[in-house]
Amino acid sequence: MARVDHGTTSGTFSLDGQTFEVENNVWVIGDDEECVVIDAPHDVDGIMAVVGDRKVKAILCTHAHDDHVRVAPALRERVVAPILLHPADKPLWDLTHTENLWDVDLHDGMELTVAGTPLRILHTPGHAPGAVCVYAPELGCVFTGDTLFHGGPGATGRSFSDADLIVESIRAKLFALPDETVVHTGHGEDTVLHIEKERMGL
C-alpha cells in the first residue's frame, strides 16, 4: 500500500496584480518504487527532496494558481511524467504558462492507481473553476489543495472564484466522505472533515 510523504516549498502567489509570499505543502503518495506528486509549487529541487529516486507516475494539479503549477513543466521534464489538470482551469494555467500545456485532463470521478492504492478525483470548483481534490480511501485522507483548510473554505475573493460554489463543492463532495477522513491541505496544517463540518455548520 502507498504512504503519504510531505515537504514544503516557499515562493510567491500572484493574481489580479498582487503578489504574496506563500509556503506550499508538497504531498507525495506512493511506496518505495513509484509515486504521484500533488501540485508543483515553487521549486523542483524541493519537490524532488520528497520524491527521492522513485519513479513519478503523474503530477496531479489541484488547480492552476501559479503557486501550485509554476514549476510543473520543469518537474515534468525532470521526472518524465504527465501533468494532470482539470480543463476548466485553462484560463488560470494560461496566466503562468503560455508555452506549455498539461498532458491529461482530470474529471470528476476519475480513478488513478499508485503503488496498488486507488485515488479518486473530486471536482470541487469554487476557489478555481477546475479545482479538484484527490481522495485516497484506503489511506483515509483527502488532498484538498486550496478548497478546504484547517479553518474552513479556501479564499474566493479573486478572479475565477465563487464563494457560494466552493461551499456547495465542500458540502456535496468532501462532506460526503467519512467524517474521520484526514484533510491534507495546500497550505498550512492538516485537519479532519468532521471538525470542518462542525465549524461550517453543515
Automatic annotation (TrEMBL):
Domain of life: Bacteria
Residue ranges annotated for the Metallo-beta-lactamase domain, each copy included: 23-187
GO MF, one annotated term: hydrolase activity
Keywords, alphabetical: Hydrolase
Transmembrane intervals: none
InterPro entries: MBL_Glyoxalase_II, Metallo-B-lactamas, RibonucZ/Hydroxyglut_hydro
Keyword Hydrolase: yes
Range of residues in the leader sequence: none
Protein name: MBL fold metallo-hydrolase
